[in-house]
Design brief:
The complex is a heterodimer. Chain A is an all-beta fold. Helices cover 0% and strands 53% of the residues of chain A. Chain B has strands at residues 3-7, 10-14, 19-26, 32-38, 45-50, 56-59, 62-66, 70-75, 84-91, 97-99, 103-108. The chains are: A mainly beta, B mainly beta. At the A-B interface, strand 4, strand 5 and strand 10 of A face strand 4, strand 5 and strand 9 of B.
Chain lengths: 114, 109
């Protein structure tokens, strides 16, 4: 089974802190994605990566950056956390050859910024 | 811009009471429509992919159908364990998925 692992289930950070959310997949997938999920707004794409060292902005990249130094790992960085970044963050991956197969998601990280 | 609208936002059913969830979409060049199930505190779990109008897929008590404008997720004789949020997403030629807000289904025993 494809496994996408997010390093933390719950995080509480202070306003202004730099926050790192880590995601690791074990199936050699080329494509990886970061979403945030908020009630009534659904899943919104923050950043994605088609391969190592590659990154593309999604629909809501402001206040975030990403890093993909190794194929299996995709990190989301909140440069200076703010309370409006309190949310559920979901990482997903997909093989490039399976473009029509959808994504495999991690269990999510619920981030609270106080 | 791709758009996905799911209705209703929330649905409460008695066990055994069949119903349907709706996903209407606008997308230029549909490559696939996806249904996911999400349990509280967990990531979405893949259910189905539909590729073209007229296609149907089934899994246990769930059946997904697709037209040129919308998809339905039919739930036949649901059980309490079917309670979850059901998400619909579309994939256009750009490759990324665009998600709807979901339907929160509660099945009462």
């Amino acid at each position: 089974d494809v496994k996408v692992t997010q390093s933390s289930r719950y995080l509480v950070k202070r306003t202004g802190e730099k926050v790192f959310l880590e995601c690791v997949q074990d199936m050699d997938h080329e494509n990886m994605f970061w979403y945030r999920q908020d009630p009534g707004l659904g899943l919104r794409l923050i950043y994605f990566s088609y391969d190592v060292k590659m990154k593309e902005k999604g629909d809501i990249p402001e206040g975030y950056s990403v890093s993909r130094e190794k194929k299996e790992r995709f990190s989301l960085i909140l440069e200076s956390a703010s309370t409006n970044q309190t949310s559920m963050y979901l990482c997903a991956s997909r093989t490039r050859t399976g473009l029509n197969y959808g994504y495999t998601f991690g269990s999510g990280t619920r981030l609270t910024v106080v | 811009e791709d758009q996905v609208t799911q209705s209703p936002e929330a649905l409460r059913l008695q066990e055994g009471e069949s119903s349907s969830l709706n996903c209407s979409y606008t997308v230029s060049g549909l490559r696939g429509l996806f249904w996911y199930r999400q349990d509280p505190g967990k990531g979405p779990e893949f259910l189905f992919t539909l590729y073209s109008a007229g296609e149907e897929k089934e899994k246990e008590r769930l059946k997904a159908t697709l037209t040129k404008k919308e998809s339905f997720l039919h739930i036949t004789a649901p059980k309490p364990e079917d309670s979850a949020t059901y998400l619909c997403a579309v994939q256009a030629h750009g490759g990324q998925l665009t998600f709807g807000s979901g339907t929160q289904l509660t099945v009462l025993p």
